Amino acid sequence: MNNHYECIEASITGKLGLINLNRPKVLNAINRQMVSDILSVMEDFDENDQVRVIVLCGNGRAFAAGADIDEMAADDAIDFELRNQFKDWDRLARIKKPIIGAVQGFALGGGFELALCCDLLLAADDAEFGFPEVNLGVMPGAGGTQRLTKLVGKTKAMEWLFTGKRIGALDALQFGIINRIVAKEVLMEETLKFAGEVANQAPLSIRLIKESVLKAVDVSLDEGMQFERKNFYLLFSTEDQKEGMSAFQEKRKANFKGK
Ligand code: HXC
């Protein structure tokens, strides 16, 4: 793994692949290099047998305070089109392993969109989520209007997107945006513990559960049921299914290998 990235830090600890956003002076504002770094590492982790769960976190006062305004201020529509601005974000949606985000401080604009790309989110009690793009005369472009609406429904999504107002960790928990709130001092410790629990589950189950749940967000119930069924069948061709069920019958702990 290449360990030298401009805008992030990456490492592997046990079964966890860790990514730290690392532009603290600008509250981890997301420039194009950062998105490219994130995807390069995530795709490495996705192919690395040692890594079972990916953990994404901020650094300093923020998870990320949005796309880098200085970088995009002079862009015009055709710059975005020719650059295919969101191609790396599309790759992010295709990562197969679970991504757990740890949010401290600001998760705004593109930072909130990045958080919404995680499968599970823990937030510190000081976390603040929001889409302030409306204050800049623009709007979210990396899935904010879509993912937030699918998650919390039209009513709150419209309110938060129209006003740009920031919502705290408690509201985020109540609306199902995050899984847990923890004290800021123990955010990483708790996130790694949570990620460790997921990392010890049967990896192929986790992989196909992720795929099936994400499918549910987009398709009709009937189509989703057919999709789920095929993944259910598929798991019966794995060694881990034999191991999991034998372990149950033999009253011992299963040793899953991801095969
Ligand atoms: C570039 C940013 C930045 C950003 C903060 N900074 N957010 N630089 N892009 N998104 C920089 C500031 O310019 C400042 O640099 C330093 O980080 C610290 O920020 P301050 O503003 O001094 O801190 P504070 O007063 O605590 O205010 C924090 C804040 C504010 C409320 C988060 O920084 C803010 O409103 N940031 C912009 C948030 C935003 O609008 N995000 C949406 C961006 S558009 P200096 O050099 O002065 O110290 C977007 C579109 C997504 O995300 C499209 C798809 C990806």
What does this structure look like?
The longest helix has 16 residues, at 32-47. It contains twelve helices and ten strands. It has a six-stranded mixed sheet, sandwiched between helices. The protein has a four-stranded mixed sheet with strand order 4-6-8-9. The two termini are 23 Å apart. The chain is globular and about 60 Å long. The chain has helices at 32-47, 69-72, 77-83, 87-92, 110-116, 144-152, 154-163, 169-174, 187-199, 203-218, 221-235, 239-249; strands spanning 8-13, 16-21, 53-57, 62-64, 99-103, 106-108, 120-124, 128-130, 167-168, 180-182. It folds into two domains: 8-200, 2-enoyl-CoA Hydratase, Chain A, domain 1, CATH 3.90.226; 203-250, Lyase 2-enoyl-coa Hydratase, Chain  A, domain 2. It is an alpha/beta fold. Hexanoyl-coenzyme A binds next to helix 2, strand 6 and helix 5. Pfam families: ECH_1.
What are the low-pLDDT stretches, counting only 5+ consecutive residues below 50? none
Q: What is the number of E strands? A: 10
Known CATH architecture of the largest domain: Alpha-Beta Complex
- Tally the helices: what do you get? 12
Mean pLDDT rating: 97
* Protein structure class: alpha/beta
Strand content: 15-25%
For the sheet with most strands, the description reads:
6 strands, mixed
| CATH class bucket of the largest domain | Alpha Beta
* Spatial arrangement of strands, main beta sheet: 1-2-3-5-7-10
Assign the CATH superfamily of the largest domain. Answer: 2-enoyl-CoA Hydratase, Chain A, domain 1
Number of domains: 2
| Sequence of secondary-structure elements | EEHEEHHHEEHEEHHEHEHHHH
CATH topology annotation of the largest domain:
2-enoyl-CoA Hydratase, Chain A, domain 1
- Ligand types: hexanoyl-coenzyme A
Binned, the helix content reads 40-55%
EC number: 4.2.1.17
GO biological process, one term: fatty acid beta-oxidation
Family: Belongs to the enoyl-CoA hydratase/isomerase family.
GO molecular function: enoyl-CoA hydratase activity
